Amino acid sequence: MFTSEGNIFPNFKRITIEDKDVIQSYTQKYPPYSDFNILSLLCWNADENNSYSILNDNLVIKITDYLTENHALSVIGENRLDETLESLFSLGLVVKMVPEFVVERLDASKFESTEDRDSFDYIINTLSLSDLNGRNMKNLRKNVRSFQNSYPNSNVKALYLAEKDAQDMIMSLTEKWCDSKGFNQKEKDDDIDAIEKFIKYSAQFKTSTMGLFVDDVLVAFTLNELYEPLWVMGHFGKALNNYEKSSYYLEVVGAGWFNKAGYYYMNLQQDTGLLGLREAKMSYHPEYFLKKYTIKKN
Fold this sequence. Notes:
Elements: E1 13-14, H1 20-27, H2 38-43, E2 51-55, E3 58-64, E4 71-76, H3 81-89, E5 94-99, H4 100-103, E6 111-115, E7 121-125, H5 126-131, H6 138-150, E8 154-159, H7 164-180, H8 185-201, E9 207-214, E10 217-226, E11 231-239, H9 246-260, E12 265-267, H10 275-282, E13 288-290, E14 292-297
Parallel strand pairs: 4-5, 11-12
Antiparallel strand pairs: 1-2, 2-3, 3-4, 5-14, 6-14, 7-12, 7-13, 8-9, 9-10, 10-11
């Protein structure tokens, strides 16, 4: 693996785009847990303090907790995990967002694990979401029809982030969306910073951006990363509140596009415990979750 003195535990290296190959070399053989996704680590990094370390040939990340603003640790890998966790606890930080397969390899007599429902990744079957078949999709079908009936002149287009017009439309909608949510200045700045970073780094990843237009006005967008050969990581999705059901419509259309292109699963990431976000993501009827846990010493 790619290691140097600066990223070997107990040293942590701040994450930059130059660490893409290093981090992906440790994560690529595992399911795409969003917390370890390099593009996500670059985007949600307003204070530039997200960092990583290599410990017993496992990848350790130190990030700012989404809700508490405190630092937290997590780990992905399969090697000498009991010893690895003991070392992490020596730093005095919370250990959370730990993938289920890691927890299954820990000695339960030494560590207590608790499901962290707020951090579960939602895994969506793109065919199921795009077809909308079955009784469980009744409400989602209703939402999609409602949008189509209200806005018969709407259409979905691919957006190209290298184009300034596309960038300007996305950033303008993001600012309006933040204002509609009543964000304080820091919350708004962090959200805008994350979108700007996705645009900045998008050329170094395989990405797909979709825009929903009504009367040539952008009313919703999604920013996605494509994994070979089956996966999509849904990084961002925003919609103007006054265009009701637009977010549902765009996700359903997008799922159809991805499925036809050979991407059969989409990770919509976690809901961070926000009730509205949880209700929206549950409405897509995830096929399963990538579960994560908070770990404590017994």
